[in-house]
UniProtKB/TrEMBL annotation:
<keyword id="KW-0520">NAD</keyword>
<dbReference type="Pfam" id="PF01370">
    <property type="entry name" value="Epimerase"/>
</dbReference>
<dbReference type="InterPro" id="IPR036291">
    <property type="entry name" value="NAD(P)-bd_dom_sf"/>
</dbReference>
<keyword id="KW-0560">Oxidoreductase</keyword>
<dbReference type="InterPro" id="IPR001509">
    <property type="entry name" value="Epimerase_deHydtase"/>
</dbReference>
<protein>
    <submittedName>
        <fullName>NAD-dependent epimerase/dehydratase family protein</fullName>
    </submittedName>
</protein>
<feature type="domain" description="NAD-dependent epimerase/dehydratase">
    <location>
        <begin position="5"/>
        <end position="162"/>
    </location>
</feature>
<comment type="similarity">
    <text>Belongs to the NAD(P)-dependent epimerase/dehydratase family.</text>
</comment>
Amino acid sequence: MKKLVLTGAAGRLGSYLREPLSRMAEELVSTDIAEDIGKLYDGERYVQADLAQYDAIAPVLEGADMVVHFGAIVDEKPFEELLGPNFVGSYNIWEAGYRAGVRRIVYASSIHAVGMHKKADFIGVYAPHRPDTFYGLAKCFTEDLGSMYWDKRGLESVHLRILSAAQVNNPRALGSWLSYDDLIQLVTRAVDTPSVGFSVIYGVSNNDRCPVDNAKASFLGYRPKDNAEQFAEAVLAEASPADLSDPGEMCHGGPFAKVDLGQSGIAQMSIVDDRKKS
């Protein structure tokens, strides 16, 4: 590829994607609302832009072959706060991408698009939407947006329903963990698979306790290698017994399935900010 665009480049997951993506195209254009993202990799260029402003983000996509769209507010917030970056921002990426002739968009969707499904149901990629929050609703919106742009305009997209790409420090993560190495493989396969149409795939490692079924997305070639079971003994030794009446314990969305709409789900978690330094 000549040009690849990464949104959300200043975020924790974006920090791990920048270097491998810089090797997949002649030019990687990284973008975010942050003033800068530190030292750039060979072939990488940074552009500060607000996803919610079409006139700001559209020029970034001009001449791009593909977009890896990880930019968003990554937590539950009141709807009004999410509307710009998470809803309008997605529309801006798809519309600007279509007008610019982009071939494919790889989107950081989330388990929270289906977060109210029970973990015991072992849902697949065709499970109906059951968002747990306004944040999850934005993921549903963007998945449907991607489906519509494929059906009506032929713009390919892969929607990565990431479960939890963070250090394993709680029982839920023993099933939901996505290691950074597997994240990189997942995004790479979404970029280099020859034809994807509109596709959904769960972003999860090869965990013994994995609660979702990726079988119908196997054509994308994603074969995760890491397994959270290596952390099980230490995590379970400190865990309290599960409350079977708690949706945060029983549903895919974890804490997001439990909080009131508009209230932070991240605040109920212990996520370590271990972003990669360039």
